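Per reviewer request, we include the raw input and output of the structure prediction for the construct analysed in the revised manuscript.
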Amino acid sequence: MLHLAFSLRGLSTSRIVFATAPYVVTPAGRGRSVVRLNRAIGSGFWHAFEYDSLPAFMQAHGAGGSGAPAR
């Protein structure tokens, strides 16, 4: 943990992006619902996450500054 903390020393808060993995909510009856990862755009989300292009991906998929891309 100490190594991780030191590795983040120069990180600017302007470079931090908060996002929720894309998900789909399906009604399950009786007022309940099932929440699952959205596999249709999930692979693109994780690719953007890995290659540091998440803000552009989120903008292209209708997400705000934080939150899940459009379901």
